[in-house]
Amino acid sequence: MSGAYIELFDVVDPDDPDAALIRGQLTGLPGQVLDLGGGPGQWTAHLHDLGVEVTGIDMVPEFVMHARAMHPGPDFRLASLFDVAVPESSVAGILAWYSLIHLSPADVRRALVGFRRLLSPAGVLVLGFFDSDNGVGLFDHKVAAAYRWPADTLVEELTSAGFVELERGRRQVADRPDRIYGTVVAVATKELQ
Ligand SMILES: C[S@@+](CC[C@H](N)C(=O)[O-])C[C@H]1O[C@@H](n2cnc3c(N)ncnc32)[C@H](O)[C@@H]1O
Fold first, then answer.
1. Which of 50, 113, 141, 187 lies 20 to 30 angstroms, CA to CA, from 120?
2. Contacts of 177 (CB under 8 A, 6+ apart)
3. Which of 26, 34, 58 to mutate to test the pocket of ligand 1 (most atoms within 8 A of CB)?
4. Does 58 contact ligand 1 (Cβ within 6 A)?
């Protein structure tokens, strides 16, 4: 599974709107950034190249080995996004780019609460996900089954976990009319809930 994913997604196109969003939100922050579920490490490397103190974390050894081999600069760690060994409130930004898509709704809830604990107040969370106009649901993704989420529902989960929505986006591309690519940027509230 990781080999197929690496072949498809290991390169960042700097002109892609996703790259502009990730750069715009996660550079220049006052502290470290975590790329949680960073897979092959392309976004970690992109941010590292822009001077961000960024760590890529993934639970699949093949991804972490590939990331270390392809991108010698940044720190890549093998860990679960539910169990990241950094102190609470010590992180300025988190990227979770399509890394919550395979999690059940209950686990997404749990992950967001954990992300909020890691972030300092006003810390920034950037999510990439599959958007939906028809409720939360599973579909066959190229690599493994994945969930679609209406952005409103995901934002409700973010609010419950202690975030305020900053902006959201959605777009479709001509060769994948069945997919809606969604993004949400949210900021950690002052108080931990
Ligand atoms: C669809 S891939 C996205 C990878 C990368 N963020 C990207 O944009 O190419 C989902 C990634 O999330 C990782 N992942 C899923 N659940 C995880 C967990 N509990 N802890 C750490 N990584 C996880 C998977 O191993 C995989 O690398």
1. 50
2. none
3. 58
4. yes
